[in-house]
Amino acid sequence: MAGISVNNAQLQYEVAKAEYEAVKLQADTEIPSKIEQAKAQYDLLETNYQRMQELYDEGAVAKSELEQMLTSIPWQKRPINKHLMLKRLLRSSLMEQSKSGCICASD
User: Fold this and answer.
1) Residue-wise over 5-21: b if at least 16 C-beta within 10 A, else e?
2) What's the rounded Cα separation, in Å, for the pair 95 and 23?
3) Angstrom distance (rounded) from CA 36 to CA 7
4) Distance of alpha carbon 73 from alpha carbon 66, whole angstroms
């Protein structure tokens, strides 16, 4: 009976360790990549806005088009902020797990 309990505990430990490693991998790779993608999209939007501003100044673009683009700029920051917050939450969770001794990354 004790052998089953030990095996069960070992299995639970291995599952928890795998979950920890998956979250760590996500925090280390996937989220930074998504942040970079969102930043690139935002930078492109800002560049396009500046170009449109120049065209507007020359009379080649209607004010409504310029204003429409201007209103979309704050929305482009939302994915960046969302992924930064998720990264902080995952990192915090990983640190708490490490401190509590639940999972050791080196095991």
Assistant:
1) eeeeeeeeeeeeeeebe
2) 12
3) 43
4) 11
Check residue 106 and report its DSSP letter: T
Q: Are 83 and 38 in contact (CB under 8 A)?
A: yes
Task: Give the model confidence (pLDDT) of 52-78 as tens digits.
Answer: 999 999 999 999 999 998 888 888 889
**Residue ranges of the chain whose pLDDT lies below 70:** 1-3, 100-107
The percent of the chain in helix, strand and coil, each rounded to the nearest 5, is 90, 0, 10
The answer to whether the beta carbons of residues 34 and 79 sit under 8 Å apart is yes
**Residue indicated by tokens 């310029």:** 66
With a threshold of 0.85, does the pTM exceed it?
A: no
At residue 18, what is the residue type? A
Is 94 within 8 Å of 20 (Cβ atoms)? yes
Q: Please state, in angstroms and rounded to a whole number, the distance separating the CA atoms of residues 97 and 107.
A: 14
